[in-house]
Amino acid sequence: MAAPFVAVSVSVLLSTLLGAATAATCYANFATKDYPSCVNVAPSLALHWSVSGGYITFAADVDGAWDWVGIGLSEGGMLGADLAVAAHDPGASQWTATDYWSPGFGFPARDDLQDVTLVAVSRAGGSTQVALRRPLVSCDLAQDRAVMNDTRQTVIWAVGSGAFAYHGPVNRGQSEVVLLSNTTAQANLPLPADVQTLELKMPTFTIPGNATTYQCVNLELPHDAKYHVYRYEPIIDNTPYVHHFVAWTCYGTADADAPATPVGTTYDCLGYMECSEFWMGWAPGLTKVDAEAQAALAFGSTTQKRYLALQIHYTNLQGVQGQVDSSGFRIYYSPTLKKYDMGVLTLGTHDIAVPAGAPSYTTVPNVCPGTCTSQLAAPGPVTLIESFYHMHQLGKSMITRHVRGGQELAPLGTRDYYDFAYQSPVNVPPPSRTLLPGDSLITTCTYSGVGRGNVTKFGEASYEEMCFNFLYYFPFNDSISYCITMARDLGGMASCTSIRTLQSLQTQDAFTAAVQAGEVVPVPANATTYKPYNPTCARTAPGAPGSAAQPASGGGGASPGEQQHRRNVGAAVITIIIIACLGGVAIWGVLRWMRVKRQAEEEQHLFQKYNPSTVGLPLVGATNSSSAPIGKV
């Protein structure tokens, strides 16, 4: 019985050594050499990770002594979440690792294919430290999310006491993180020396008792020179009531271009906007956003951007009175300009009619045709950065497809489990980031009309619907910001112009002139006929989904010693069977030999694993929750 004694002794020793460490600080309890990447996803949780051999290992250091810790990937919140959970079983005095999937808003279900490994766990120094390993790509397409290269993803987390159960509204969170950075990209460059900050905030505003409120304030940007936004981040003043907010720009830098409502005066903007071009947005989970290495949003002189409307969506479902807010954006801007200006291209449709009670309704595919992208990309290839998908309460999924020469490429990011409460930009996957002349972009939205008594159509209110993809790109083309197939009665035409031009098309003559100018272009009859994107999944980790071997003790992956140990045990079992066939008398001797050999190997293995000079965090009684081998972490 030496093995438990060794594990507990080393655990106590290292717990004492780590007792003075501060939790929720990167590398307080994990070593940089083991986990090269770390970010504080919350004040109470530092998330470390490493990538090796087709696996990613998450190491969470969270304030407090918890009985379970969950780390996962999602599109925001628990809907469609892929979750790895380490949980303590007090009855067995051990920890387990389990792979969960959350197809709905209820309690997550255990994956059919288990692909999670518990690497290490400890509760010491006022914090709980858990390391969980999983494949980057498991090819369990139904219940796992892939870790994507050079792409910002939503990392969710939750902790709890007692058995794994609902975490409540406090012990949870999410953050946007790039887990696999492109080492050649110039990401996270230092801000220029002449950077300035500007807060674009709502003046102190008393939130009404209504369930939904859209409030706007017009603001003025510096316009004495041209500036680039190197970074923007949210200022959240009253978190429970701020649903999301967006900055919309007006066109023009002259005094006459100012919006009707005076700067600094708030107004109700549900269904009414005084500035109409999408510029930047925030939704839960989004923290700071850094500009691309080569491009940034521009404002000031020569940009036609001087005024903007900050629109905040407040949610007050309980009708609480007396709540005030002053949220908004903090931007870091500089007259030191990058190579390109960044722009926003609006894709989507106004043609929405969700039938009452319909479990699923999908819009007619809306095409931004090649005749428009040929104008957008006429000076050269366009780089697509991210999609900001936007629907309302009935939205279920959304996608913008990228078609070139009749072949669909990887989509511009997707929202397979759209949640109105969690809206944030989706990075365009690297294979689809280049837009060439003649490419088509096809957007569809899917809704559910269950619970509605009437047809739901397009509109600004949350109880109405939208279908927009605000697509960030560079270099910016000031004359094209809206590429959407127009109403069916206009004969298959698409806008290829700015929103201000569209708003001026009030007569047939104006429409005809727009067609002649290429501001309204035809949509080919076969625009939605193409060879679908159908990639072959390549699992990054050894074995089939759910088949990776798992140490019986829940140890930190299969080391060469552990692999040799398993081979030895397997060989011993085969030997037992052969001897049993020859005669039962020899079985007792073989079993005794096998026990001695295994005990010796385990003692040697534990000495290597728990040697304080080689290990930064002990594994204390960790096992897997399944008797079947677990392959994903």
From TrEMBL:
Residues 541-564 are annotated as: Disordered. Residues 1-23 form the signal peptide. One of its GO terms (molecular function) is copper ion binding. Residues 541-552 have a biased composition (Low complexity). The chain crosses the membrane at residues 569-591. This is DOMON domain-containing protein. Residues 43-160 form the DOMON domain. The keyword Repeat does not apply. InterPro entries: Cu2_ascorb_mOase-like_C, Cu2_ascorb_mOase_N, Cu2_ascorb_mOase_N_sf, Cu2_monoox_C, DBH-like, DOH_DOMON, DOMON_domain, PHM/PNGase_F_dom_sf. Keywords: Disulfide bond, Glycoprotein, Membrane, Signal, Transmembrane, Transmembrane helix. Belongs to the copper type II ascorbate-dependent monooxygenase family.
